[in-house]
Design brief:
single chain
């Protein structure tokens, strides 16, 4: 699903005013709690900023080298 900067502004405004119903991406949604709204806002932020564009979670890959003596 594609989100816009306006969707992010809309949910942020709803959170700021304590309203649990907001229209995001053309769909009206009633949230169960402020915590749920904040989770969705984080998801929208990631999508708008490009972090979630592949639909995959971000993964940190590490490597190490053993020093055998």
């Amino acid at each position: 699903m594609s989100y816009t900067q306006q969707d992010l502004r809309d949910i942020s405004a709803a959170i700021a005013t304590g309203v649990l119903q907001v229209t995001i991406n053309g769909r009206s949604t009633t949230f169960r709690s402020l915590a749920e709204m904040m989770q969705v806002r984080s998801m929208i932020e990631d999508a708008v900023n490009g972090a979630g564009s592949t639909g995959e979670d971000r993964v940190l890959k590490t490597s190490y080298k053993r020093d055998y003596q």
